Amino acid sequence: MVLALQGAAVAAIKKRSAPGETERLQAKSPLMRALGASVAALPAYQGALADAPPEFTEVGLRYSRYSEDNLASDKLIAGSRERYDIDVTQLWIEAPVGSSWSIALDVQNDYMSGASPWFVGTTVEGQPGVIMSGASIQDNRVEVGVTTRYFWADGNAGFNVSHSKEDDYEALALSFDVAWNSADNARTWSLSASNSDDKVVPVDGNIPVFIDREDLDTQSAYFGVSQILSRTAIVRVGLSYTLSDGYLSDPYKLFDQRPDRHRRSALSAGYRKFFTEAQGALQFDYRFYTDDWGTDSHTVELAWHQNFNRTTLMPYLRYYSQSEADFFGVTADLNADYYADDYRLSSYGAFTAGLRGTVQIGDWQLEGQLERYESDNKWGLYSGEAAPALVDFWRATVGITWRFD
User: Fold this and answer.
1) Cα separations (Å) of 215 from 50, 165, 171?
2) Strand pairing of 137-152 and 339-340?
3) Per residue in 373-404, pLDDT tens?
4) Based on the number of CB atoms within 10 Å of its own CB, is 207 exposed (0-12), middle (13-18) or buried (19 or more)?
């Protein structure tokens, strides 16, 4: 279960000619390979890259290892210093169906072990310290999703259903998305909506819990626009809104009482520029987030996609900063209506540095990625007390993809 509540930590967690241009950008050209590599992973860009069903059947397997650093000994009052390790295995297959459809199956298995901050107390010196959950927690999550997509001359639309199950958390989600192009094929609009029905059933283990079963419903909507600026540049802007109703507290934290409604909005923007002589593309992304719990955040990412003969390399650097929630306290204020000492609701800044690479060997593609994430209250743009349980982690990924007729 705890994986669902720890998602925030893991998160840092798939051609057209410009106006006046007479040459259509072909998907197999070096330009489109470079631009495509830098935009294909972002949903806001998908409409600009997918006006026809996939030409091949694709099967992929990916493994990721997420490992948090041990809690510093001077911040520990009791329990285990060891924090989460998560092993993620993903399998997917996507295939064309006829001339206008595709279908995809995604299966993911997450295995998690480690200890979690239970609550923040005070040391004999009067400084805040963490009481951890003690012996290692173990949990396994399996998620299965199916997506069907229809393509027409100027766009595509998809429908997805997914089910996630773990020891104490179950979710059923439905989503729909559509993308369509302008008459001059230079602009793509994207729209998506989703709904998730979740069940929280905490399990008594290393730490006591005080609820038997709770429900959580989440609806989300997104609208975005992608614009081809020239033969070598593309820009996009998107706006999202999410509303959650139901149980939003963390049952595995002793002092955690949150509102039962959470409204979140985010404005995102991105820019891609391909440099012909360098055979590489510059990527810049920015995201502003705000919610009704009092948290604002900024995310900035800069990356370079370098093409070689059969290889691509992408070094990237990401900066993140957020303000603390209205009801956050380094030690929870139990006299307030809402309270939490969860470090994920505190004010802090974080840097992520990483490198991703791919190698193409015939119909096979190999991929690898390594990134380091570090956070500190002093690196943030907002004022606020430092939470003693801020996390640092490593994440490594290897994968293989096979395409065939």
Assistant:
1) 37, 14, 10
2) unpaired
3) 999 999 999 999 999 999 999 999 999 999 99
4) buried
Give 355's Cβ-side CA count (13 Å radius): 3
Pairing of strands 261-275, 296-307: unpaired
SS3 of residue 181 by DSSP: strand
Sign of CA dihedral 343, 344, 350, 355: positive
The CATH classification of domain 2-404, taken from the options 1.20.1250.20, 3.40.50.2000, 3.40.50.300, 2.40.160.40? 2.40.160.40
pLDDT tens, residue by residue, 110-160: 999 988 899 999 888 888 999 998 666 788 999 999 999 999 999 999 999
Residue 183, judged by CB atoms within 10 A of its CB (0-12, 13-18, 19+), counts as exposed
Spatial CA neighbour of 234 closest among 222, 244, 223, 225: 225
Q: Distance (Å, rounded) from C-alpha 225 to C-alpha 215? A: 34
Sequence spans of domains, the chain? 2-404
HSE of 253 in the Cβ direction (CA atoms, 13 Å)?
25
| Phi, psi of 230, rounded to the nearest 5 degrees | -165, -175
Among 72-81, 153-162, 370-379, the range scoring the smallest mean pLDDT is 72-81
Judge contact between 216 and 248, C-beta under 8 A: yes
For residue 148, give every residue at least 6 positions away whose Cβ sits within 8 Å of its Cβ, in sequence order, or none. 101, 102, 103, 104, 158, 159
Task: State the Cα–Cα distance between residues 170 and 324, nearest whole angstrom.
Answer: 28
Q: How far apart are CA 248 and CA 218, in angstroms?
A: 11
Q: What whole-number distance in Å separates Cα of residue 389 and Cα of residue 129?
A: 8
What is the 3-class SS of 281-343, one letter each residue? EEEEEEEEEEECCCCEEEEEEEEEEEECCCEEEEEEEEEEEECCCCCECCCCCCCCCCEECCH
CB 373 within 8 A of CB 395: yes
Whole-model pTM: value is 0.87
DSSP string spanning 381-395?
SS--PPPTT---EEE
Q: Which residues contact 42 (CB under 8 A, 6 or more apart)?
A: 236, 270, 285
As a whole number of angstroms, the distance between CA 166 and CA 209 comes to 17
